[in-house]
């Protein structure tokens, strides 16, 4: 399949089946704004939940917070973002379109002319005003990253958890950047979801922890998201191209249909941020009494890029059949229940009972699809296309023998499973021994 086709197919599938819709569509849309639909929000939430479980819930050294989107402007002045968080911008002298020079290929994408102004820096922070006064004293910024809240809240977390180095502070949530050239569907937008943590360490241990988180990030992408290793790369970001706070950065890159580009990042932020925010060292060694500024290794994950990569990587075609081979635990629907025939009340009632059984105590951690339209083959195709790992059909044998047909999305193999064993069967298949 041509790679540009793949992107078109994903965007179209997302719209048609309810993963991602164009934002504000009935008003003609708002460029580069996207809404997650019923299936997209399940996929996105599954990624976020899995991440939280892995990096916060199952560890005793990382603590979660949920900080405010709007913070004091002083935070962004101290962090260097007001001054440094900028991208180069050029303007086309012909049509006055504005672009990031590194994201265009020579000529103006609007009018095709190659006549640009010199690059100047454009700050990416989104500005707004608090309260009824619309002057600079009320000016604030929507957060451009979550990290600053983790630095600002450092003493509060330290005090309430009594944590000792090394330890981390984690958060998930929206970040906002006034990107000059957004695009490629949900790859680069002006509001996006982040998951990141600041891992506080002693300076002499930064290399050890950098390597540790490097391996963890790789394992997250391949084991948890199920992304193929052959499409994944690491890039050592050279001097002069790193963010203003970073002494070393590795980007995890993916082979998107539009090229090899960043998926996630890992940065060694030194003690740059804590030093900017705190006049006195905010950490004291409890044994020696020594006060100092911890250093920081920061793994950061874009949620929307995770969704995009998972969809691209899972998309397969087999003749006219499209299968999203998502990891079962990421799939929006965990299973689908079908009565073989919609006009047989006994079958429908039994299928409803099974639907209730699978949704009541919610041990499968996700919704279950119900479909009684058309023939079974079409229903299978419809579920394959959205990645539902198991389809359960209730037929006449079910009424007599108390078992159902369970069909596996990837192998299309079918097996009979007793109704009373169904929930455990699916749980084991989807979540294994965890
Ligand atoms: N606190 C560090 C930080 O924010 P970043 O590399 O600027 O680092 C983190 O952004 C991640 O957020 C990126 O690796 C990428 O996954 C995602 N990201 C960045 N800008 C984005 C945008 N405009 N749209 C969607 N995702 C974006």
UniProtKB/TrEMBL annotation:
GO biological process, one term: glycyl-tRNA aminoacylation
Start and end residues of each Aminoacyl-transfer RNA synthetases class-II family profile domain: 5-332
CDD domains, alphabetized: GlyRS-like_core (cd00774), GlyRS_anticodon (cd00858)
One cellular component (GO) term of this entry: cytoplasm
Pfam family, one: HGTP_anticodon
GO MF, any single term: ATP binding
Matching InterPro entries: aa-tRNA-synt_IIb, aa-tRNA-synth_II, aa-tRNA-synth_II/BPL/LPL, Anticodon-bd, Anticodon-bd_dom_sf, Gly-tRNA_synthase/POLG2, GlyRS-like_core, tRNA-synt_gly
Domain of life from the UniProt record: Bacteria
Major enzyme class: ligase
UniProtKB keywords: Aminoacyl-tRNA synthetase, ATP-binding, Ligase, Nucleotide-binding, Protein biosynthesis
Record bears the keyword Nucleotide-binding: yes
Enzyme Commission no: 6.1.1.14
Protein family according to the UniProt entry: Belongs to the class-II aminoacyl-tRNA synthetase family.
PANTHER family recorded: DNA POLYMERASE SUBUNIT GAMMA-2, MITOCHONDRIAL (PTHR10745:SF8), GLYCYL-TRNA SYNTHETASE/DNA POLYMERASE SUBUNIT GAMMA-2 (PTHR10745)
Protein name: glycine--tRNA ligase
Source species: Candidatus Liptonbacteria bacterium RIFCSPLOWO2_01_FULL_53_13
Classification lineage: Bacteria, Candidatus Liptoniibacteriota
């Amino acid at each position: 399949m041509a790679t540009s086709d793949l992107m078109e197919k994903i965007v179209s599938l997302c719209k048609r089946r309810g993963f991602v819709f164009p934002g504000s569509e009935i008003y003609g849309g708002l460029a580069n704004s996207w809404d997650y639909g019923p299936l997209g929000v399940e996929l996105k939430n599954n990624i976020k939940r899995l991440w939280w479980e892995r990096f916060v819930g199952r560890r005793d050294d990382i603590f979660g917070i949920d900080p405010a989107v709007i913070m004091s402007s002083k935070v962004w002045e101290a962090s260097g973002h007001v001054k440094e968080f900028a991208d180069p911008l050029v303007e086309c002298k012909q049509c006055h379109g504005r672009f990031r020079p590194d994201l265009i290929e020579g000529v103006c994408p609007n009018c095709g002319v190659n006549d640009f102004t010199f690059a100047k820096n454009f700050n990416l922070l989104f500005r707004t005003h608090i309260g009824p006064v619309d002057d600079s004293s009320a000016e604030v910024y929507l957060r451009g990253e979550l990290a600053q809240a983790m630095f600002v809240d450092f003493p509060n977390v330290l005090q309430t958890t009594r944590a000792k180095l090394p330890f981390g502070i984690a958060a998930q949530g929206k970040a906002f950047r006034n990107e000059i050239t957004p695009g490629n569907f949900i790859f680069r937008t002006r509001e996006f979801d982040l998951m990141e943590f600041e891992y506080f360490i002693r300076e002499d241990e930064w290399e050890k922890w950098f390597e540790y988180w490097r391996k963890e990030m790789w394992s997250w992408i391949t084991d948890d998201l199920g992304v193929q290793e052959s499409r994944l790369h690491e890039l050592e970001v050279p001097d002069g191209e790193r963010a203003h706070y970073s002494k070393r950065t590795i980007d995890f890159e993916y082979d998107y249909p539009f090229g090899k580009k960043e998926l996630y990042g890992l940065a060694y932020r030194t003690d740059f941020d804590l030093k900017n925010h705190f006049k006195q060292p905010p950490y004291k060694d409890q044994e020696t009494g020594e006060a100092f500024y911890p250093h920081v290794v920061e793994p950061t994950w874009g949620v929307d890029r995770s969704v995009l990569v998972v969809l691209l990587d899972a998309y397969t075609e087999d003749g006219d059949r499209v299968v999203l081979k998502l990891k079962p635990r990421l799939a929006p629907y965990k299973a689908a229940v079908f009565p073989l025939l919609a006009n047989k009340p006994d079958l429908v009632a039994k299928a409803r009972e099974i639907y209730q059984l699978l949704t009541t105590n919610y041990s499968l951690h996700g919704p279950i699809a119900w479909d009684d339209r058309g023939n079974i083959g079409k229903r299978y195709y419809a579920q394959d296309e959205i990645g539902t790992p198991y389809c359960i059909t209730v037929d006449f044998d079910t009424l007599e023998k108390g078992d159902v047909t369970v069909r596996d999305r990837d192998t299309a193999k079918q097996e009979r499973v007793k109704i009373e064993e169904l929930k455990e069967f699916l749980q084991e298949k989807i979540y294994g021994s965890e």
